[in-house]
Every structure is written in C-alpha cells, then in structure tokens.
C-alpha cells in the first residue's frame, strides 16, 4: 500500500473512532435527547418489595438536577427533568432562591429557567403516570433567608398526602407515588440524611484522586445503609477555582469518572447479598450507568 493511502486510511480510522466515541458513551451523556432502549423499564421501583426500608435501597440521582444553563463551569446535566425521571433518576438535587412569594431554581447566581413549583408539577405528573415510583428531593436554600424556604415549600405542598415530610424512615410501600423530601440543617422537612462528601470533596484537581475518594465515600455509605438516615454520595466534581484543575469542568470530570464508576459498581454484581450505596448523585449520567446503579438492588428482587 502506498504511503499516501496509508495516511488516508489512518485518517479515516481515527475519524471513525472519534465519531463513534463522541456522544455515544453509554455511561456518560451530554445529549439533550433521550433515547431509551426498547426493553427499558421506566418504573423500575415496581420490583422493590413493599417492606424494604428506603435506607436499604440504592438510588440513581442527579447532582444539581436543573443545572442545564450557564456555561461549562455551571452545567451539570443535559436531560430535562422529565427525561431524567424517565431514564431512572429518583433523586433530585435542587438549589433554590426565594424572592417575593416564588422559589426559583438556581445554580449559584445562575437562574435555571424553572421555579420550584414547576419542578413539583413535573414530578407529580410523572408519579401520576408511574404510581409504583417515588422521587426523593433535596432542597438547598441559596439565599440568606433560609428559614423562609421551609415555609414557602410547605405552602406549595399544602396538605398533599402524596408528599412525605415526616422524619421517620418509610418503607417502599409507604412512599409509592410520592415525593419524599430529605432534610439537613437549613431545610427541615422530610427524612434526615448523611452526606458522605467531606469538605471540598467536590473540588477536583486530579481525576484518579477523585476515583479514590468515591471508593471511600461508597464504603461509608454501605456501612451506614439501613439506619434512620438516608445516605447521599456525590460522584460529581469540578476543578473550577483551582489552578491545576482549572479545565476540569463538571462535564470533563463526569466523562472520565462515569465509566470508571460503572465498572467499580459492577464488580459487586456476583456478591450475595450485594452492598447498599444509598443515593448516588451524578453529573451527566448515561443510560447504562443509571441501569448499573438500579441493578445493585436486584439481589433481593
């Protein structure tokens, strides 16, 4: 083969590999369109026995759930809220700012083009369609008027019996078709939770170091599962604000962490029983990664 032909073949091989890899990673997703496999089970919680405590279930969740806008340093998700729910996400991470009588969903100072009421309406519509499911929500006030957020959320939910605001740990049967609030310090409605992330653990300057931190976090989660608290681990991270990690946006971190996380979790599949990891909140998760997290529960279905 002539040298020119060899170079041309190499070029097309490299181009094909690039096209196949970009946007096609089943563990990482930055495409706003949701394409579910034909056999995909949206109401996956239907298979969980009613007597199982929430604290013994492993949930796929999204970090900064509504952060779709604001540029690469802010954006943490590609799918809309409805698409996330249909893909299997069952934990929402919401930062809100109260202004007047409205709660706005934010990421820092960036408005995410949604009010908290609109989020609740979307989740309620989803649960009305899939009554076997439950959706966990963490509310984190961004404003200095943090005490007012509790009152504003309570006003929005009223006496809705399909919203769980009690601190007691419910069973799966008690929360089907319901929104379940989680509480910590500045928000006091719902189930208390423990966060495995230590100080600055979301700050990433080296992705390999981030992987090792996640291993420690998931070990902590497994030890704490089954208690009176929900357990929350963030696999997300960003190097924004650091010198050595300045180019590690949430998307770039997720691109490298998500495939690793999928492989790490899958090593437990032969285990009987499998570990419990509580809530794993991720940036830009792909369908296969979400399914891997869901399937951790399969050892007692």
Q: Descriptors for this entry?
A:
single chain, 301 residues, alpha/beta, TIM Barrel, 33% helix, disordered N terminus
Walk me through the structure.
- By secondary structure, this protein is an alpha/beta fold.
- The protein has one domain: Alpha-Beta Barrel (TIM Barrel), CATH 3.20.20.
- It contains 8 helices and 10 strands.
- A 7-stranded parallel barrel has the order 1-2-5-7-8-9-10, surrounded by 4 helices.
- A hairpin with a 2-residue loop joins strand 3 and strand 4.
- Helix 2 packs parallel to helix 3, helix 6 packs across helix 7 and helix 7 runs parallel beside helix 8.
- The protein is globular and about 50 Å long.
Please give the structural blueprint.
Elements: H1 3-21, E1 59-62, H2 81-87, E2 91-99, E3 102-107, E4 110-115, H3 116-129, E5 134-141, H4 146-157, E6 163-164, H5 172-175, E7 178-183, E8 191-195, H6 207-224, E9 230-234, H7 250-266, E10 279-282, H8 287-295
Parallel strand pairs: 1-2, 1-10, 2-5, 5-7, 6-7, 7-8, 8-9, 9-10
Antiparallel strand pairs: 2-3, 3-4
Helix pairs in contact: 2-3, 6-7, 7-8
Quick structural gist:
This protein has a single domain (53-300), classed as Alpha-Beta Barrel (TIM Barrel). The protein has eight helices and ten strands.
Strand content: 15-25%
Question: SSE order, as H and E?
Answer: HEHEEEHEHEHEEHEHEH
Radius of gyration: 20 Å
Determine and state the CATH class.
Alpha Beta
CATH homologous superfamily designation:
Phosphatidylinositol (PI) phosphodiesterase
Euclidean distance between termini CA atoms: 57 Å
């Amino acid at each position: 083969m002539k040298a020119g032909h060899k170079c041309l073949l190499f070029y097309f091989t490299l181009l094909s590999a690039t096209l196949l890899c970009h946007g096609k990673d089943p563990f990482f997703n930055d495409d706003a369109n949701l394409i579910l496999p034909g056999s995909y089970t949206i109401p996956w919680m239907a298979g969980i026995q009613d007597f199982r405590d929430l604290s013994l279930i492993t949930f796929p969740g999204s970090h900064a759930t509504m952060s779709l806008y604001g540029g690469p340093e802010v954006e943490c998700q590609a799918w809309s809220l409805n698409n996330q729910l249909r893909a299997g996400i069952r934990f929402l991470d919401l930062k809100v700012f109260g202004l007047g009588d409205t709660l706005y969903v934010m990421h820092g100072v960036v408005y995410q083009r949604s009010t908290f009421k609109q989020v609740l309406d979307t989740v309620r519509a989803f649960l009305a369609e899939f009554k076997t499911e439950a959706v966990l929500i963490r509310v984190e006030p961004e404003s200095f008027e943090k005490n007012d957020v509790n009152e504003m959320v309570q006003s929005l939910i009223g006496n809705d019996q399909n919203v769980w605001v009690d601190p007691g740990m419910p069973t799966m049967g008690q929360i089907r078709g319901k929104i379940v609030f989680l509480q910590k310090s500045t928000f006091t409605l719902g189930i208390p939770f423990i966060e495995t992330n230590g100080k600055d653990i979301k700050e990433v300057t080296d992705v390999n170091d981030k992987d090792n931190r996640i291993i420690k976090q998931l070990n902590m989660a497994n030890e704490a599962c089954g208690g009176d608290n929900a357990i929350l681990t963030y696999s997300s991270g960003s190097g924004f604000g650091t010198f050595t990690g300045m180019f590690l946006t949430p998307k770039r971190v997720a691109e490298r962490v998500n495939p690793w996380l999928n492989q790490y979790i899958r090593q437990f599949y032969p285990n009987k029983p499998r570990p419990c990891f509580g809530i794993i909140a991720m940036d830009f998760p792909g369908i296969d990664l979400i399914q891997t997290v869901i399937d951790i529960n399969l050892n007692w279905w």
